[in-house]
Amino acid sequence: MDSPVPGPTTAIVIPVKNGMPLLEEVLAAAASQGADELLVIDSGSTDGSVDAARAAGFEVLEIAPETFGHGRTRNLAVQRTTADIVAFLTQDATPLPGWLQAYVEAFAVDARIAAAYGPHLPRPDTSPMIARELTDFFGPMSPDGRVQVQERADWPGWQVGFLSNANAAYRRSALEQIPFRDVEYAEDQAFARDAFDGGWFKAYQPRAGVLHAHDYPWLSFMRRYFDEYRGLHETTGYRMSFYPAGIARDALVEARADAQWLKERGVGVGTRRRWMLRALRHHAGRRLAGVAGSRAHKLPAPVRRLVSLEGRDGVGDGGPTPPAETPADEVSAVVATRRIEPGAYAEPYAVVAEVETRGVEPLDPAWRPADEGGPLEIAIVVPGFRPGSGGHATIFTLIEQLERFGHRCSIWLHDPFGMHLRQSPADVRDDIRTHFRHLEASVHVGFGEWRGANVVLATGWDTVYASLRLDRTGARAYLVQDHEPEFFPTSAERLWAERTYGFGLHPICASRWLAELVVDQHGGGASWFDLGVDHEIYHEHPEVERRTDTIAFYGRTVTPRRAGPLATMALTELARRRNDVRIVSFGWSSPLGLTVAHQHAGVLRPQELSKLYAESTVGLTLSLTNYSLVPQEMLACGLPCVDVAGFSSEVAYGGAPPLDLAEATVPALADALERLLSDREHWRRRSAEGLAFVRQHTWENAARKVEAGLREALATQRVEA
What we know:
Residues 550-643 form the WsaF C-terminal domain. This is Lipopolysaccharide biosynthesis protein. Keywords: Glycosyltransferase, Transferase. By secondary structure, the protein is α/β, with parallel strands linked by helices. The protein folds into four domains: 10-211, Spore Coat Polysaccharide Biosynthesis Protein SpsA, Chain A; 218-327, no CATH class; 353-528, Rossmann fold (3-Layer(aba) Sandwich), CATH 3.40.50.11090; 550-697, Glycogen Phosphorylase B (Rossmann fold), CATH 3.40.50. The strands form four sheets. It has an eight-stranded mixed beta sheet with strand order 3-2-1-4-9-6-10-8, with helices on both faces. A seven-stranded parallel beta sheet has the order 14-13-12-15-16-17-18, sandwiched between helices. The protein has a six-stranded parallel beta sheet with strand order 21-20-19-22-23-24, with helices on both faces. Strand 12 (377-383), helix 13 (390-404) and strand 13 form a beta-alpha-beta unit. It is elongated. The protein starts with 9 loop residues before the first strand and ends in a 5-residue tail after the last helix. 44% of the residues are buried.
């Protein structure tokens, strides 16, 4: 019988100076974690901290106060210990039970993790400003409670650059390769950048929590914030913008959020108002301290010493000399310029650059299914969405059918624009189930939990690039719902969208017209399917009285391919001709701004849409690229509709389209609408033709063709082991 493999050894290190009385609590909690080594480095305590540390079982290393440095002293701790994992606390951060073991488990996720960090939790007496800040800051880092691995500085997610030595652990081999910088502040965040640059990963472990909340008197708070932002500037170049009106506005927004946070916890109105005043002063002061601290190198040394909580001026006191200004700080000699700080979020198209610089992850034959005709592991990469998105409705409906066929599906949200920034995977899954389909698929925000798949299915041009960087996949396919380069004018986005067809993903197109276009313009082969109709939702409603004056207009005018200005002017022309027309717009939350009075229904649930179609007389929905799902759903409810001729509809609907196709001009569209309103015989014929046409269009049939396309991707992308 094999002997069990021993786990990594661990050390806990706490830098200390006059940490009493809270230090005793921290020492006891740390000593109970079961570490192999316990070390306190004391830099001149006079309050009994050294005796307390020794009494708690810690080795104590005493150093002269003037030799202390946040990075320098922690590097000394690494030299004095031998453990595989070195965990750091500050003297006021109390680790919760299981804290150290949680870090051991985090490092076991991936051997490339150099550092891991956990949440800072408020103490019972923490002020609401700080308690809410901690909750809001750490909550989005792992909404599902799992370890989140961050592989690079521009990795999608919340505050990816953050790392705090108040509560962090490090792999010794990484610290030996990348020691902490010898800086006054933010040595931890500087390490994070250096680690990313060196090819290491970072992880957030939500179960490695500590009680740690700085709650000083107001003036001490401001002095601490001065030091913190000063350190950020010295290590990262960050400089807080100074706009007085913006500071006042932001302080008010934050104070209101504090009041709401208290309200949600049952705090009375009077207490909330008192805290609101304190919160206003706190948040405004913090921003002013940030402005001053990030420009501290421009202040006289005596002023720096006076304002700093640590009383340092940064020159001649053992601290580093303020850094020389970089080229980004140099104003132009010929025109007026000002420095602009780096953006708060990663470039949304960073994954494009990653593919171009680091290449495409090769397909992995180990992830091909053993049974070519059996159930598949399908990973679907989707872009961010909002309720009412027709493209996402198609994606999620197809996933539902694939699940019914026995395939195991997972959904991976690629959200570089932050549409779901504050949402957990569970929140996103709830949105899918509420607004689209009740799926069994697991939902993941980002790719930190990527585990591999038989087939990766990209569902939009930007998700193609994300898919190309995923390893452990047997094949890649591309669900093409439209020719997306046409969504953009001449631009980088258009160029990148066009290139997606050249990466070898097998296209599965949402119409024969679209498949022919993709093959003609980009070469290769393509599968295709017809859009389906959910006949359980979209059908005739005998209980709903059909009006004779109502036009249901899919008014998603924010989408250029929907030809919004053309449609709205056609409706205006129709209203000019006759005063008995009732227009109901839907499909977007905001009203259209038509020059005629109309009804606005906003974004409707499918069951509501079905009844709107059953009530209406004519449907108006235009598409200048691939044909739309909306007309089919209208036809299934017995509603004749109007679209534009000369694009995809003639091919999609066959030689005798079951809807009225009009020339893409204002008079022609108004004529088509008016004929369906006035000619009852024509209306009845079109209604019957539409019902007959959609009867054969089901999502099961559509998904079977998608399934065949996925298997074709596996068949045509064979790679040797």
